[in-house]
Amino acid sequence: MYVQSMMGANMRALVEFPLDGIRGATITSARIHFFAGDTVGYPANQTFSRITSPWEELTVTWNNQPGVTTVNEAIVLVPWLDGGGPADFDITQLVKDALSEGQKSLGLRIKNTVEDGIEGMKNMFYCTREHAYAGWRPYIEVNYEVGAKGTLEAHAYIQ
């Protein structure tokens, strides 16, 4: 999945993760993990925005991309990864917001914060859930507490 900033050829990525297993829990932290291919023009900032309307993976296009909210967007610095490598980012507030609104999943739109090549071409490839090597597929790691204060801390790895 590509995230690109280039005049007339911007690309954005959409991802979605189920949240069923952590409803009712107190979220202490959440990170999204990717394996990225070689980067062009980085380091640069990317914006992770929570998707607020339905979308279908096989039919979404630039012209019908789902709506997002700018509330609590995560703006993250993406490093230059010579030859590729792991990349992970804090999305704690985005997970908390989705759960507080009763959403069954967390949908994210990922884009370069500055688009249209204004800062020069920026191109990032993230491996997808279809990657042959499971260790390179995206997932979110959520740390949470359940029940009375401090009774249980658990981790959820959601792909």
Which key phrases capture this entry?
159 residues, mainly beta, Jelly Rolls, four-stranded antiparallel sheet, 10 strands, 45% strand, globular, disordered C terminus
Q: Your description of this structure?
A:
With 159 residues, this protein is mainly β. The chain has one domain: Sandwich (Jelly Rolls), CATH 2.60.120. It has 1 helix and 10 strands. The strands form 3 sheets. The protein has a 4-stranded antiparallel sheet with strand order 2-7-4-5. A 4-stranded antiparallel sheet has the order 6-3-9-10, covered by helices on one side. Strands 1-8 form a two-stranded antiparallel ribbon. It is globular, with a radius of gyration of 16 Å. The two termini are 15 Å apart. The C terminus is likely disordered.
Chain-wise SSE layout:
Layout: E1 2-5, E2 13-18, E3 26-36, E4 44-51, E5 68-78, E6 85-90, H1 92-100, E7 105-112, E8 122-125, E9 139-145, E10 153-158
Antiparallel strand pairs: 1-8, 2-7, 3-6, 3-9, 4-5, 4-7, 9-10
